[in-house]
Amino acid sequence: MTKIRIAVQKSGRLNEDSLQILKDCGISIDNGKDQLKATARNFPLEVFYLRNGDIPQYLRDGVVDIAIIGENVLVEKGNDIAVAEKLNFSKCRVSLAVPKGVKYNSVKDFEGKKVATSYPNTVNEYLKSKGVTAELHIINGSVEIAPNIGLAYGICDIVSSGSTLFKNNLKEVEVILQSEAVLAVSPTISEERREILKKIQFRIQSVLQARQNKYILLNAPNDKLDEIISILPGMRSPTVLPLAEEGWSSVHSVITRDTFWEVIDELKQAGAEGILVCPIEKMVL
Ligand SMILES: Nc1ncnc2c1ncn2[C@@H]1O[C@H](COP(=O)(O)OP(=O)(O)OP(=O)(O)O)[C@@H](O)[C@H]1O
Ligand SMILES: O=P(O)(O)OC[C@H]1O[C@H](OP(=O)(O)OP(=O)(O)O)[C@H](O)[C@@H]1O
Ligand SMILES: [Mg+2]
Fold first, then answer.
1. 140 CB under 6 A from ligand 2?
2. SUPFAM superfamilies recorded for this chain (predicted)?
3. Which ligand is nearest to the CA of 180?
4. Ligand 1 pocket: which residues have CB below 6 Å?
């Protein structure tokens, strides 16, 4: 039977969430330690554990059909590779930063200066688009230390919470791009494997929808129902069922994870009681 081949980061920031999303899609993978390749037990899929930075080339060469990879790595090394889904984890940005003490006016300040980075193509493209020429000092890690040891004027690296910049006495001055984990597709994927990809995409979409929403149940006096329903949009509209007690109803709906505390406050104000909020496992729209 034909299997789709997926690349997942071997170890690092993407590994755990990548395997979790496959698991939430109902795909079981036997995960032996130090195993570089694994086969799913219940889905036509093989997993290859690779370095994030090597994945664009494997996709291009058709060694793997799909991959879970940081979008920033595709910008750097895989502009020719298509993204099938954004996965809503490992969110970060790629930014330029300079020492806190530097008086910074604009990106023109980088003209003729040295920039330390692991993302040379990204920096070059960005500076070129701004008409700035800088010298790049390419290093693979601990980029934030470069200005402090006199290696560079500024840096370009990944920023998330900003704490690495802070600890190294740097300030973020330009955001070049926003990134998150994505499902990327090889330009050479076969039609047969594209059909398997469609199934994975359908499952991923159901999992991501479910993660962003909560199921809410509450009791409401019937004379408050209109107001309560207006607070709860639901997938189509809320479900309303009579309670055994006369004059009361049970209302069921779906609310987004980001807003549910505000929605609960409004519901309580409007007279809702016995509010339950439950996770949703899968959500098919
Ligand atoms: N601090 C962070 N917060 C959120 N996401 C991040 C952060 N740092 C990196 N990422 C994202 O996770 C991806 C993997 O980062 P990680 O540091 O684990 O590996 P790497 O060194 O880029 O790759 P490799 O697997 O080739 O060693 C990055 O490409 C980026 O998309
Ligand atoms: O803004 P923050 O939340 O501090 O995150 C940013 C830091 O995270 C990443 O490093 P990582 O920890 O992945 O180390 P690495 O250089 O070994 O990949 C990145 O290269 C930054 O240094
Ligand atoms: Mg890193």
1. no
2. GlnB-like, Periplasmic binding protein-like II
3. 1
4. 9, 12-14, 51-53, 70, 72-73, 90, 92, 158, 160, 179
41 & 70 share domain? yes
Regarding whether 194 and 245 lie in a shared domain, the answer is no
Q: How many residues does the chain have?
A: 285
pLDDT of res. 166: 98
Ligand number, closest to the Cα atom of 91: 1
Residue 156 alpha carbon to ligand 2 centre in Å = 12
What percent of the chain stands above pLDDT 70?
A: 99
Q: Classify strands 248-256 and 273-279 as parallel, antiparallel or unpaired.
A: unpaired
Please tell me the total count of domains within the chain: 3
Sign of CA dihedral 69, 72, 78, 84: positive
The CATH number of whichever domain residue 198 belongs to comes to 3.40.190.10
- The ipTM is 0.96
